[in-house]
Amino acid sequence: MSKKSLSLAFGLLVACISLSNTGCVHLTYGNSLGILAIPIPVSPYTQKVQEDRFWENERYNTVPILGPITAGGPTTALDEPSDDEIMRAFERANPVQGGLPLLHEIQRNNVRIVKEKIADYVDPPRVIPLIGPAQLHHAHYKCTIYYTEITRVGWPVPYTTRDEEAIEVIYIDHNHFHMVGNPDTGMTGTY
């Protein structure tokens, strides 16, 4: 074997060893995830769906447990639905995402939201599993959304429609629990 081919073989061996230890592909022994070590791209749509699901579960799909209602204290619900909660409910009912740019697009502009409380009442005390004696406080809201909807179609015949007086009504329920009596919260001592 000539000196030139020997140095070429040695150079290829060094290149293979150095490339195998870059972090993406492992040809050596040791801790390795195998084929799972190669990164897999995630589409932005899938990531957005997961982030939205987490956001809604964290913010809107839980029922809080508050302290007991005091004698002579307010029994009205304190929190009305936020604009974010209303628009998320509206998007679930009438999705806009997924339009094709320059072929079919829908925009909602000049959004105005009017919130009305239509019911606010407290159920009688009862024993709820994993909570104990509690009262369920209901608050029902009627949310009217006024907006301008612009639809642009680009093929086969380009045109734009504009609905200046689009109206949508969304009903949102807010529920939370109030503990009954002198609850034991598990806190002992003062801090």
Notes on the protein architecture:
The model has no long low-confidence stretch (mean pLDDT 84). The longest helix has 18 residues. Strands 1, 2, 3, 4 and 5 form a 5-stranded mixed beta sheet that branches. The chain has 191 residues and is an alpha+beta fold.
The helix/strand class is alpha+beta
Helix content: 10-25%
Task: Estimate the strand proportion.
Answer: 35-45%
Rg from Cα: 30 Å
Distance between the termini: 82 Å
SSE topology string: HHEHEEEE
Number of domains: 1
The count of strands amounts to 5
What composes the largest sheet?
5 strands, mixed
Shape: flat
Number of helices: 3
Concise summary:
With 191 residues, the protein is an alpha+beta fold.
List the SSEs and their pairings:
Blueprint: H1 3-20, H2 44-59, E1 65-66, H3 83-93, E2 104-122, E3 126-128, E4 132-153, E5 159-179
List keywords for this structure.
191 residues; alpha+beta; 5-stranded mixed β-sheet; 24% helix; 35% strand
